[in-house]
Design brief:
It is a single chain. The relative contact order is 0.08. It is built from 8 helices and 2 strands. By secondary structure, the chain is an all-alpha fold. The chain is elongated.
């Protein structure tokens, strides 16, 4: 049976893990707080493994714990929003981001969102405006409606229609 106290004492300190070359490789592109969080999670995971009597004795070597911390850090740095293929058969799938934007729309969004915009500012009046103003005229011309607005989901549209 492993000596749990000895193993707990052998857990590497977080600052030692942070100073290992494998972790330092991230130092220029990653906030220190995120690196510290990854190292702390690796240490916590090791501690839980040591204390779980049903598990075999874990490897407490600093390189092993650092490798775990690097894996955790890579996971933390990976954006959760990813491009996927829609093979569901549903063209506008609400769980998959709805409709993809065309290239021209993507370029327009990218161009405007790279800096400040007049989203809620009326340039002609020089005062606060309404964000839906940018699409209201387009929708009215397209549909022949007297007025128009945009909501971000079907529930919002139904609520407005019923109201």
């Amino acid at each position: 049976m492993p000596d749990r106290r000895r193993l707990l004492k052998s857990i590497p300190a977080v600052d030692k893990i942070l100073n290992r070359p494998a972790m330092q490789a991230f130092a220029s592109d990653c906030p220190r707080q995120l690196m510290t969080e990854a190292a702390q999670k690796a240490v916590d995971e090791l501690r839980r493994t040591i204390l779980d009597l049903s598990l075999p004795e874990p490897d407490c070597a600093i390189d092993t714990v650092t490798a775990t911390a690097v894996g955790i850090l890579k996971t933390l740095l990976t954006p959760s929003l990813r491009k996927v293929l829609n093979v569901t058969g549903t063209l506008l799938h609400t769980n998959l981001g709805r409709a993809p934007l065309c290239r021209a729309a993507l370029e327009a969004v990218s161009s405007v969102s790279a800096g400040y915009s007049n989203l809620e500012y009326d340039l002609e009046a020089g005062e606060r405006g309404k964000r839906f103003r940018h699409v209201e005229d387009l929708i009215c011309r397209l549909t022949g409606a007297e007025a128009a607005t945009v909501v971000n989901n079907n529930a919002g549209a139904v609520l407005l229609a019923l109201t």
